[in-house]
Design goal:
By secondary structure, this protein is α+β, with helices and mostly antiparallel strands. 48% of the residues lie in helices and 12% in strands. A four-stranded antiparallel β-sheet has the order 1-2-4-3, sandwiched between helices. α2 runs antiparallel to α6. 28% of the residues are buried.
């Protein structure tokens, strides 16, 4: 069932439980078309996507990544920063490729392009009544093993995975930060920022305490700082170097 743009964007939530039924092919094709039409830097389309439907492969990835929605969803889409295609194209045309991915801006460009493509997929999927869950841990859990499993060449790295399926649940809608801490007018807003963030932390804590599944007393600040502390142990710089994204400018 198709939804309005307003409902698609404002009622979106991460779905982690799915029905065991296939996604209609017309809906899958709509997702693919939306991905292809993603706006990108320079129209360079510095991204690609692996659509994963093979169940044994999904189960293998779920075991490594530790996210059960990978194996229970109908599809997993792996969104990749990709400079391999343009390098291959340049060689085919006899042109020298400047290894743009070895600059900080190149890393940013590919990451932004892949992220925009994932948002295109999410919007398309949710508009058709499907559920989605972005899985960033697919990037950090074991980059070399995941890259080998997906057959990624040099100049390509996984930005994020996305589970998509027919939803088996409608999770509570998480409260987001208020507009005045997200959207500023003309310059960055600093007025009472600490107070506003503490207000949001209290609102989020109340949501956590009263949500339908897995209630807790953990606040937003505590939760996010915990994720950051865990992230300090990731070895993404070495992983990016292995993928050819090694920059000094």
């Amino acid at each position: 069932m198709e939804q309005t743009v307003e409902k698609t964007l404002l009622d979106r939530r991460s779905v982690r439980r799915y029905e065991r039924e296939p996604i209609p092919e017309a809906d899958l094709q709509f997702i693919r078309d939306a991905i292809r039409n993603t706006p990108t830097s320079y129209n360079g389309q510095q991204f690609s996507v692996i659509e994963i439907s093979d169940q044994p492969l999904k189960e293998k990835l779920a075991e490594i990544i530790g996210q059960k929605q990978i194996k229970t969803s109908a599809r997993v889409f792996a969104f990749l920063s990709d400079f391999n295609k343009i390098a291959v194209a340049a060689e085919a045309k006899g042109m020298e490729y400047p290894a743009f991915e070895r600059t900080a801006d190149g890393l940013i460009v590919g990451t932004v392009d892949a992220s925009l493509a994932m948002m295109s997929a999410i919007t398309a999927a949710v508009s058709r009544g499907l559920g989605c869950c972005p899985i960033g841990y697919a990037r950090t859990v074991d980059p070399k093993v995941i890259s080998d499993i997906l057959g990624l060449p040099e100049r390509v790295y996984l930005v994020c995975a996305l589970a998509v399926g027919v939803p088996r649940e409608i999770p509570d809608l998480k409260p987001k930060q208020k507009e005045d801490t997200v959207i500023f007018s003309n310059r960055y807003g600093t007025e009472d920022l600490a107070g506003k963030m503490l207000d949001y932390d209290r609102e989020f804590t109340e949501y956590h305490q009263n949500r339908t599944s897995n209630p807790s007393d953990k606040g937003w600040i505590e939760e996010i700082i915990g994720y950051y502390r865990e992230g300090m142990n990731y070895t993404m710089r070495a992983a990016l170097r292995d993928r050819g994204y090694d920059f000094d400018r």
